[in-house]
């Protein structure tokens, strides 16, 4: 993988991750992956029931149209409950998009929905469903580490071994991740899902290899954070891989990925500063020389 990504100056590519914080964008994600079909004939009966999960939207609009002619009366609770039931899906984009439309329509039928507090509540309720898409993550503890006494020798060894492990897994690449996502979403190349799976496996392998390397006691807390971050990075691909078919879940995984990359940048900076403070030096030919990328460059005084 590319070490430079963790440097403090590294900038994550500008992708619209605010999709999970905006009603319009979340529903836009649903409409992006589910283009609207021909407009169905609306029923004016407020108690009309959706016959199956494919006509929930037409039935919802029918209920809303009926409400509009009855002084903005709220829909029947039974009808709303059936709509909510129809919104439940293994596809997170379906669920969030449908729930947003249902709740926004329900709010508007009561003369609400256009004020910021109501919209915030609706978006928060829809976004809370994203938490159910969290993948299983291997949680490493101190018992999984090979902790050794701290000395200049063991610290120097750790500095080199950590960078060797990262360099041994070139598939763990942010650039390759974003390229694969672009080819899936923009190019429609579903074969790139396997590329994302390979990248995720590489991040998990980094965590496994780091846990097997000796770590000096003084750096064990930071080192453990880095290992668990890599394990979580690998797990995030279970969601990222769905970006072509379940855009909300895919973008949620990408948001987690970004947060973890930034977290590990801070961890690596702290490790680099500890190595520098302990006087651990690396020649230009040693893998550990890459730690210099994490030491902030002093700003020249004016």
Overall, the morphology is elongated
In quaternary terms, these chains amount to: single chain
Structural class: mainly alpha
| Beta content | under 5%
User: In the residues, how many domains can be counted?
Assistant: 2
Q: List how many beta strands DSSP finds.
A: 2
Low-confidence stretches: 7-54, 67-75
SS field, number of helical segments: 10
How do the helices and strands follow one another from N- to C-terminus?
HHHHHEHHHEHH
With strands numbered from the N-terminus, the spatial order across the biggest sheet is 1-2
Radius of gyration: 25 Å
State the helical fraction: 40-55%
Average residue-wise pLDDT: 74
Main β-sheet description = 2 strands, parallel
Distance between the termini: 38 Å
Describe the protein in words.
With 302 residues, this protein is mainly alpha-helical. It folds into 2 domains: 3-19 and 134-294; 37-133, no CATH class. 55% of the residues lie in helices and 2% in strands. It has 10 helices and 2 strands; from the N terminus they run H-H-H-H-H-E-H-H-H-E-H-H. The protein has helices at residues 23-33, 56-68, 77-87, 92-109, 116-127, 152-167, 174-185, 192-212, 220-240, 247-277; strands at residues 146-148, 214-216. A two-stranded parallel ribbon has the order 1-2. Helix 7 runs antiparallel to helix 8. The longest helix is centred in the last third of the chain and has 31 residues, at 247-277. 36% of the residues are buried. Residues 7-54 and 67-75 have low confidence and may be disordered.
